Amino acid sequence: MHAIRSKNIWGIVKRTLNKVDPRLVEHGERVAYIALKILEEAEGEISHEMLKNVLLVCLIHDIGAYKTEEIDCIVEFESRNVWEHSIYGSLFLKMFSPLSEYTEAVLYHHADYCLMKEQGVKGRTLFLADVIHLADRTDLLWQTKAQIREKLEERKGREFSEFAVETLLRAEEKYQIGRALKDGSFEEELEDIIEKMRFTEDEQRTYLEMLAYSIDFRSEFMVLHTITTVNASIAIANIMGIPGDRSDRLYYGALLHDIGKVATPVEILEKPGALTPDEYKIMQEHVVDSGRILKEYVHPDIYKIAVRHHEKLDGSGYPLGLTGDQLSREERICAVADIISALIRKRSYKQVFSKEQTLKILGDMARRNQICPEVTKAVSMNYDFLMEEIDKNGERLMLIYQQMKDEYREMLGMLKEQGFPKMLS
């Protein structure tokens, strides 16, 4: 089952990125447009697949900023403290996207052209990293209304290649890039390309998983939350005999249920004690933000499963205060799976709960008519089986997370010792 239409992959990625920080709103899309014009001027005809991949790489080139909180540096033209998010972003592409061949272009998207050449970067990687770097910095110049030609001429042959700068300046004269960015008409041109983008079901799933895991990976306490919620949801659905198409929608609803946490401050996600009323209100906003990201882009059932996982049968939940007769079986399952994930995993404010503690809490909530008794009974009667199913993929994801942490540290060490990081094999 295709979770969303092909053209909506772009929209959902863009909306998620735009929730990271208001200063990055539309930045990835503008970088994609500038890079597009450089490529058109440099190469003329570009294949649909190449165009799709390069534009998506440009759109998500700052995905590492989710983790490293370097946004203050990213939006300063002269800043050089931008390696951490570049390293982390490249590792995300390497391990979680269909764009692994572009990992080095993301790794070096803030590296000076002359430095890349000195370090042996060459070929298509050198060209694309140079183009993305130039497009990224030029977007900031246009946003600050700087003199583009003067600024770029100063840096030609050093920060950016002469070829890329001269190509961009020719493209600006031909296509009036700055004007299109200013009046918003660039969006219409991109939309024509986006309409023609096609993604296989595997590609769709991979991009959506990449976004979901990038939210979890912001906090070590959250790493296994999404995959635990997904695995618990699907295992419960199988026990309860939920048909395949509805189970598929449940998978995607559970996968995307916390995507709005991209806008939740890390200090709230990782707070060791109880949240204050104001902090709790901010935390609750993640459901609303999830809805804003997903609205009109995913199947209505997927949307409702994702945004209703904190609703309660007695109407005491949020954000809408819905009651049991308004909640589908799949929505009820995801709500219980989310609670299970919170209970059986370590959090900043709690340790792992035992089987007895978990079942008691679920049973008490069911008796208070907060969660579905039928779903709770299925969990209680099949608890050990559920834990086995949950642990299967959880172990795999934890190994990937550990690998990312290890490679991240090693590449930072390489940066400190040699002044330049390289991807590990």
Automatic annotation (TrEMBL):
InterPro entries: HD/PDEase_dom (IPR003607), HD_domain (IPR006674), HD_GYP_dom (IPR037522), HDIG_dom (IPR006675). The gene is rpfG_2. This is Cyclic di-GMP phosphodiesterase response regulator RpfG. Its EC number is 3.1.4.52. It comes from Anaerostipes caccae. Keywords: Hydrolase. GO terms for molecular function: cyclic-guanylate-specific phosphodiesterase activity. The keyword Hydrolase applies. The lineage of its organism: Bacteria, Bacillati, Bacillota, Clostridia, Lachnospirales. SUPFAM superfamilies: HD-domain/PDEase-like. PANTHER family: 3'3'-CGAMP-SPECIFIC PHOSPHODIESTERASE 1, CYCLIC DI-GMP PHOSPHODIESTERASE PA4108-RELATED. CDD domains: HDc (cd00077).
